[in-house]
Amino acid sequence: MASIRIADPMLPALARDFGGEPAGAAATITLFALAYGTMQLVWGPLGDRVGKLRVIAWAALAATLGSLACALAPTLAWLAGARLATGACCAAIIPLAIAYIGDTVDYSVRQATLARLSTGTLTGMIAGQVLGGAAADTVGWRVAFVVLAAVFLVTGTAALRMQARLAGAARPVPPGAATTALSLLRGWHAVLASGWSRRVIGFALIEGALMFGALAFVPTWLHERAGLSLAAAGGAVAAMGVGGLAYAAFASRLIPLLGERGTLTLGGALVAVGFVALAASPAAGLGAPTWVVAMAACGVAGIGFYMLHNTMQTLATQLAPHARATAIGLFAVALFVGQSVGVSVAAPVGAALGHAAVIAAAGVAMAVLGAGLGRAVARRRAS
Question: In the prediction, which pLDDT does 174 show?
Answer without folding.
Answer: 43
